[in-house]
Design goal:
RapZ-like; nucleotide-binding; GTP-binding; alpha/beta; 2 domains; P-loop_NTPase; 285 residues; five-stranded parallel β-sheet
């Protein structure tokens, strides 16, 4: 039997994750009272063939019962009950934005500010996050991207290191992305903008890519970038980072940055233990 505890911050996508796991064949139960969890799992384990994959949703709604979860998990360790913890998280700014968009109140905020409720929730859930096998930061994930990550983890059984990487191309003329962790300026590369036949095209096309990579400067830069990131990424994971945004910028975000971002994404695609996506923020401007 595979038992997954699905938990995390309110607004980070726990309900959506449970629905997706249900679609993937899991028997899902949301917000089961914590005092009943051990009895429920015991019943399921008596007939493992009936429910081979089970997901239990637990969140801050458990209220005063929540601290009891720590003892339940400790009992399962002693009894050698196989379980995993999936923790859904998002940045505070993203959570506040989501609450404002849905006009819902945070379960711990009461009549106060949403960010106060978020901070209190983080404190109450800290012990669960520390024990999590998988931490998924959904700050920049679309619904289909979340489903893709869950499929990789729970269907394809890929090794997962709790890091989601976003490769982002952008134009400096439109501003540096606020959420960028690493920013690389590729305005030193040949610029297709000054070639009439290429100006209206983008770094998604072979002709533009060939122009940007002429002379070997781009390839040399990419080689050094690959080496640096291959060193940095495992160290970020070791330090507990679970979201990494690598921003590649040129003047307009249409040619050079897109070409380099695509090449970097292709390189990182070989690292299957990490979540990965690519965005071209300004390619249509």
């Amino acid at each position: 039997m595979r038992l997954v505890i699905v938990t995390g911050m309110s607004g980070a996508g726990k309900t959506s994750a449970l629905k997706m796991l249900e679609d993937l064949g899991f028997y899902c139960v949301d917000n089961l009272p914590i005092p009943l969890m051990e009895a429920f799992v015991e019943l399921v384990m008596q007939k493992p063939a009936a429910h081979e994959e089970v997901a239990l949703g637990i969140d801050i709604r458990s209220g005063e019962e929540l601290p009891q979860l720590e003892q339940v998990l400790e009992n399962w360790k002693v009894q050698q009950v196989p379980y995993e913890i999936l923790f859904l998280d998002s940045s505070d700014a993203t959570l506040v934005k989501r609450y404002k968009e849905t006009r819902r109140s945070h379960p711990l905020a009461g009549k106060g500010r949403v960010d106060s409720g978020i901070q209190l929730e983080r404190e109450k859930l800290a012990f669960i996050k520390q024990q999590a096998n998988v931490i998924l930061d959904t700050s920049s994930l679309l619904t289909r991207e979340l489903r893709k990550e869950l499929e990789k983890i729970f269907v394809q059984d890929r090794r997962y290191q709790n890091l989601f990487i976003t490769v982002l191309s952008f134009g400096f003329k439109y501003g540096i992305p606020n959420d960028a962790d690493l920013v690389f300026d590729v305005r030193f590369l040949p610029n297709p903008y000054y070639v009439e036949a290429l100006r209206s095209h983008t770094g998604q096309e072979a002709e533009v890519q060939a122009y940007v990579r002429q002379g070997g400067t781009a390839d040399r830069f990419l080689s050094m970038l690959y080496e640096m990131l291959d060193f940095l990424i495992p160290n970020y994971v070791q330090e507990g980072k679970n979201q990494l945004v690598i921003a590649i910028g040129c003047t307009g975000g249409k040619h050079r940055s897109v070409t380099v971002a695509n090449a970097l994404y292709q390189h990182l695609s070989g690292l299957e233990e990490y979540g990965l996506k690519i965005e071209h923020r300004d390619i249509e401007r």
